[in-house]
Amino acid sequence: MSDTVMIRRPVVAGAGTMGVTLARIFAQAGYQVTLWNRRQVSLDKARARIAGDLSHLAAQGLLDQDPAAVAGRISYATDFAVYDGADFVVENIAEDLAVKHDFFRQVCRHVSPAALLTTNTSGLRVTDVARAVTCPERFCGMHWWNPPDLMPLVEITKGDQTSQETAERVRELALSLEKKPIIVKKDILGIVGNRLQYAVLREALHIMALGAAGPEEIDAAMKYGPGFRYAVLGPLETADLGGVDIFQTVSDYLLPDLGEETHLPLLHHLVDGGRLGVKTGSGFYDYPDGAGEAARRRRDRLFQQLWEILKEA
């Protein structure tokens, strides 16, 4: 647990799949965490599941702590009074705006104005949820990907009134939990990850509808083509390494066949400015003093390591 985060009493709200695992993640990172749920029976199930998960991790050699010590850092509560001393809350209850509003109205009667409040929603706008929050500048989205103990990404979304300080503090907290957080500056549906994911799914289903390939071929193309690459590089890094001008050329003839958007202004702007990626020293990113060659070598090394792992699997 990082002293710079200054979170001492986190509360995880909701004892469903996400909440149970988040409570364990906090405990494994050294936090004294409370798992809150309205129903005691759900907490009893959560306690048993956490004990089982910790025992399994220990048996597999994946836990470098005493399972009992980790479990001992988790307390359980059904009373809203537990929020009196909370300095951080991550909410994982039903994806229903009215239910979330009722929850946060009650929480805000207990927590101090300095407490950080977050929602793990993936389908609702953070700004809409924030309408039930007092001092909404201390409220943001904190979207974890499932399963949250294995998926590194945490998307921290700023609502219309979220302060930059709040976003940065939640980011530091995610880093202390050994996650890979990003700050999303605009409150958009689907955040970042789901928009990318569903764009791919939409095209996969279109390819099937065209009769060009079946499910096995489409999944194989993704896993051993773009998906393999995206485990190491993002789409913008990929363009920089492959050549932004080449990606522009391909997009100019391919986009009209993909949908209504047939022109990518940002791509053309980079090409017109001579920012073609690694080969010119700048693209979406800058590559000073040999950084481009270092990026290539890192890509190739990681690709080779990843391929060896997949071949064994």
What features would you describe in this structure?
The protein is of the alpha/beta class and 313 residues long. Helices cover 49% and strands 12% of the residues. The protein contains 13 helices and eight strands. The chain has an eight-stranded mixed beta sheet. It is globular, with a radius of gyration of 22 Å. The mean pLDDT is 96.
The gist of it:
The chain has 313 residues and is of the alpha/beta class.
Biggest sheet, spatial arrangement of strands:
3-2-1-4-5-6-7-8
The assembly state of the depicted protein chains is single chain
What's the main sheet like?
Answer: 8 strands, mixed
The sequence of SSEs as H and E is: EHEHHEEHEHEEHEHHHHHHH
Residue-averaged pLDDT:
96
Q: Over all CA atoms, what is the radius of gyration? A: 22 Å
Which regions are unreliable across 5 or more consecutive residues at pLDDT < 50? none
Residue share in β-strands: 5-15%
**What spatial form do the alpha-carbon principal axes imply?**
globular
- The chain-level structural class is alpha/beta
Fraction of helical residues: 40-55%
